[in-house]
UniProtKB/TrEMBL annotation:
Domain annotation Glycoside hydrolase family 65 central catalytic: ranges: 320-699
The protein's name: Glycoside hydrolase family 65 protein
GO biological process annotation, one example: carbohydrate metabolic process
All copies of domain Glycoside hydrolase family 65 C-terminal, residue ranges: 709-767
Domain of life: Bacteria
Family, as annotated: Belongs to the glycosyl hydrolase 65 family.
Amino acid sequence: MLSYDAIQRPELDQWSFTETEFNPLAQGKCESVMSLGNGYMGLRSATEEAYIGATRNLFVNGTFNRFDDFEVTELPNAADVTQVELLIDGKRFTLETGSVTDYARTLNLRDAELTRSFVWESDQGKRIRLEFRRFVSMHDRHLIGMKLQITPLDEGISLRLASGINAQMSNSGSQHFHEGEKRIFDKKYLQLIQTTTETKVDFVLSAQHQFWIDGTAVELAPQMEIERRKMEMAYSVELKAGQTLEMQKLIQVHTSRDSDVHDAGNLESLRTRSLETLKKSGATGYDRLFEQNQQAWASLWDRYHFEIESANRFDLLALRFAIYHMMVMTPVHDRRMGIGAKGLSGEGYKGHSFWDTEIFILPFFIYSEPEVARTLLEYRYLGLEGARRKAKENGYEGAMYPWEVAWPSDGEVTPVWGAVDIVTGKQTKIWSGFIEQHITSDIAYAVWHYYQATGDQKFMDDYGYEMIFDTATFWASRLEWDEEASRYEINEVIGPDEYKEHVDNNAFTNYMAHFNLQLALQYYDELKTRNPQLLSHLDSALSLQHYAQEWQEKAAGIYLPKPDERGIIAQDDTYLEKRILDLTPYKSQTKVGTLFQDYSLDQVNEMQVSKQADILMLFYLLENRFAPELKRANYDYYEPKTLHDSSLSFSTHSILASDFDDKKLAYELFRRATEIDLGPHEHSSDAGIHSASLGGIWQCVVMGFAGVRMLDGELHLHPKIPGKWQRLSFPLYWKGSLLKLNITKDQLQITTDSKDEIHLVIEGKKVSFTGQLQFEMIHI
Ligand code: BGC
């Protein structure tokens, strides 16, 4: 269904992909993977004409609202602006009647433009050419542009277009807005003002339509309609054969949470601003506005310039796809907002952020645009308030980060009820919000990672130390003393593998908690000499003197599971005793979660079946604590028991395979990761793209194939590009210097404009250089 060739525009080779046939039964795929956005807002790519099964979504980052006490807060689905109803000779246009030729719906990643074009032949035998274009501006983050061109090819048609702002939307039924205020100014400008029901965030949407026939501007008199939660303009026109009608629709989106708008909290000034900017956009016109968007994207692509020479041209496209979506979903403009597990491309996971950000996506920013990584970590700093509350509510101290987070101060927002239990017919309880606790040390790890790679001392002084200390305090209060075994344990948790609930001593959780405690101790000692003033300030806020002793004692006494005689580390206390199930039938499925058609989660809990990388994740994050043979043995043990039902799984497996020098496997797993969203599976992305997996794709290439690692504060490189690749080149920031790496099978070249001497370790050998380095690799 998707073609990865640049069908109509060869210059977009490896920059675009195309849907070549419309399938009304699988609309979710293209709606998500072709979604548009700019970090401020995200627009799902539903078609202009309506079909059953379409999901229209417009999200503005950070505008969370809670429908009622029985639901958790979520990103509200704002009014729709994309639907355009076309009546051709009095009949509603739909691809479900008549016949279609030359169909192509393309996402152009380079310019972030969605296009759709085809020739449609009506049941009456009239052929009409239709072309649609759409973008969400990276230049003006509040702007959406749409263009539509209609040309009857054989005979004239009478055409009626109805388009407007439709707030009869919901999030799967939950309505997040008050009815609001609707107004049409000068028979031209539509404006809708709505406020979210609980958080009282004002949304102001303004839209206008403009028309041209064969390039000449025309004024079409509208029929205006205002209904409940909806306003619409209908325009009628007669078109002769060969004449082209062009409609441009421009939309401005603002909310009272806008941080770039002066006085956004003042509704009067917001509505005036919205209307004024809309008028200005109208005077500029789609083409020029689109050019400005194009330029903004061009400078982003300059910054993230990758080159891959591969026998498979898809590889570079897949990487660009991943980077495109990371640009589209990341709120670089506002530190009060995070990255949703589905970005801004669908209702899945309600716009909430998970460890996906810190462990899967953040590395991309740390090494490509450190200021954005910093903003994302500041979001977690703001989240300390909710994390402290969660700790208190659960009887702990310090900061216990929520498993799912929305507005930073909200605290825990994980929903409580999930999918059907096939045995009982009831909904399965989601335990992650209560007991998936590794997120706290994942965040501490991310702070450390950022600091090591950037040396950003100011961030640490302002935010980082506080986060590390208070998370360590949480772990110290969380550990349980086992008298018999004479050790501290962490019982009753879920580790990264969510198919094992209520387990004791999940190795990942215990090791990462230990890491968190040790890190706090290290920084505490360092600050004593480096910045006693800051330490004393933090001490009075966080009682560090009191807690440091506890960190020490608990870090020394925590149980860290060791390998058995086969070299296997138990994922948790009971995993290795559970029944083994032959997963062959499930592993070959294209859909995830098929195991649950045969077993309930309770039953799966009693089997050696994993959803995703768990202990293998630990080997990646705390790499130099484990020997290579041990990693391989555990990989061979756990991978056959892993269904990769979470999109977070393949990339970690691929990186580890690169570490074992199994290039073929690493490449295969990289391809599996790229196929999660971009592959042929028709329903894999219905609820939205998979943010973590996209970060994971970048990591497969940079951390896996290029072997980039930060170890003990040093930058290590150990490239092993796949057999099918001839060359890989990309930018990488290290401690403030921008390095450009160029890797072939035998050579590594690094250039930098930085005047600083760069120190790194290549294939285990310490190297220093300024300006340029050429390194002949010996592949050890
Ligand atoms: C995974 C989690 C992940 C979440 C959001 C779940 O299916 O098991 O690890 O954080 O999805 O992507």
